[in-house]
C-alpha cells in the first residue's frame, strides 16, 4: 500500500487530501473512489479506513478534508456548511478526474453517514461521479431530524443560539465554538453516548479537534438531504441496517432516484459501520461489487 498527499482548489480555497493505492506504479490507471465521513469529522477517521480497504481491492481511493476542517484551508473553521461541502465534493470529483492514474470516466463516491447526503446533492449538481454509494447514510430534512434534538422546540433553541453566534462572527470575526461531541451537553453537536467519538482507539484521534462552530445549526437543521435524489441518474448503492439512522429513508430514496438502485442490508448500529470489522467488511464487499458493475472497465 502506498499513500501520498494531494492538494486542489475549491472556490479559491486550498484543500488537502490523500491518495491511497496498492501500487507505487503511477502509470497504472485504476478506477477511483472519493471517500468522505460524517459531519464535523476529518479524513483520518472513517474515511481513511474505508479508503485503505478499497485501495487493497485495486481502487485509487482519495480522501480529503473539507474547507474549514482538518488540514485544509478555509474560514470559518469547524463550520458545518452543507453547500460549501457540496461545492468541495464537486471540486474533488473534477480534480480526481484530472489525474492521469485514474481510469477516465471511472469515478465513484462513498459517503459515510452525513456526507452521503451531501454527495448525493453533488451528483445532482453535476459532479463527474459515475457511481454513488452511501454507507450508513444520514439523509435528513428538518421534520425528520427534529426528534434528535428534542423536537421543534429543541430546533428553535439551537437556531437561536446559532443566530447569536453568527452575529458575533459578523461583528468581530470570532467563531463561537462548542464541542462536536460531549455527553449531556445540549450545546454540543452530538450529546448522547457514542463510544466512537470518545475512544482514542476509534474516532477520538489526535487529528480531530472535537469542535463545532455553533452557527452550524442554522444550515444543518434546515438542510434538505432527500430532495436531490430526484435529479440523480447515476447507479446508487445504500449499505444500511435497521440499527442505522433513518432506515425508512432508504426506501424513500430508492423510489425517488432516477437511476438503478441497490441496497445491501446488514446488521449493526450506525457507528458500527464507521470502523467495526464485521460491518466494514460487509460494506466494502458490497461497495466492491457495486463499483465493479457500475464503473467503466
TrEMBL record:
It comes from the Bacteria. SUPFAM superfamilies: alpha/beta-Hydrolases. InterPro entries: AB_hydrolase_fold, Polyketide_trans_af380. This is Xaa-Pro dipeptidyl-peptidase-like domain-containing protein. It comes from Jiangella alkaliphila. The lineage of its organism: Bacteria, Bacillati, Actinomycetota, Actinomycetes, Jiangellales.
Amino acid at each position: 500500500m502506498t499513500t501520498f498527499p494531494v492538494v486542489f482548489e475549491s472556490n479559491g480555497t486550498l484543500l488537502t487530501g490523500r491518495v491511497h493505492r496498492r501500487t507505487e506504479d503511477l502509470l497504472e490507471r485504476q478506477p477511483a473512489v472519493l471517500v468522505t465521513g460524517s459531519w464535523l469529522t476529518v479524513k483520518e477517521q472513517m474515511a481513511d479506513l474505508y479508503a485503505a480497504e478499497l485501495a487493497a481491492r485495486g481502487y485509487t481511493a482519495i480522501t480529503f478534508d473539507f474547507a474549514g476542517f482538518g488540514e485544509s484551508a478555509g474560514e470559518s473553521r469547524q463550520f458545518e456548511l452543507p453547500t460549501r461541502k457540496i461545492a468541495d465534493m464537486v471540486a474533488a470529483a473534477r480534480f480526481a478526474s484530472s489525474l492521469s492514474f485514474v481510469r477516465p470516466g471511472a469515478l465513484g463516491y462513498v459517503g459515510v453517514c452525513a456526507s452521503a447526503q451531501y454527495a448525493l446533492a453533488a451528483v445532482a449538481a453535476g459532479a463527474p461521479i459515475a457511481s454513488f454509494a452511501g454507507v450508513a447514510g444520514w439523509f435528513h430534512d428538518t421534520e425528520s431530524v427534529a426528534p434528535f434534538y428534542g423536537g421543534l422546540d429543541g430546533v428553535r433553541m439551537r437556531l437561536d443560539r446559532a443566530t447569536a453566534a453568527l452575529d458575533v462572527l459578523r461583528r468581530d470575526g470570532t467563531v463561537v465554538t462548542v464541542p462536536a461531541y460531549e455527553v449531556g451537553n445540549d450545546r454540543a453537536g452530538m450529546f448522547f453516548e457514542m463510544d466512537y467519538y470518545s475512544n482514542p482507539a476509534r474516532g477520538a484521534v489526535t487529528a480531530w479537534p472535537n469542535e463545532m462552530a455553533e452557527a452550524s445549526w442554522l444550515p444543518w437543521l434546515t438542510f434538505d438531504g432527500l430532495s436531490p435524489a430526484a435529479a440523480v441518474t447515476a447507479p446508487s448503492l445504500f449499505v444500511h441496517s435497521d440499527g442505522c439512522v433513518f432506515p425508512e429513508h432508504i426506501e424513500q430514496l430508492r423510489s425517488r432516484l432516477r437511476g438503478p438502485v441497490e441496497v445491501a442490508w446488514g446488521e449493526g448500529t450506525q457507528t458500527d459501520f464507521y470502523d467495526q470489522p464485521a460491518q466494514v467488511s460487509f460494506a466494502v464487499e458490497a461497495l466492491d461489487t457495486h463499483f465493479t458493475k457500475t464503473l467503466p472497465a
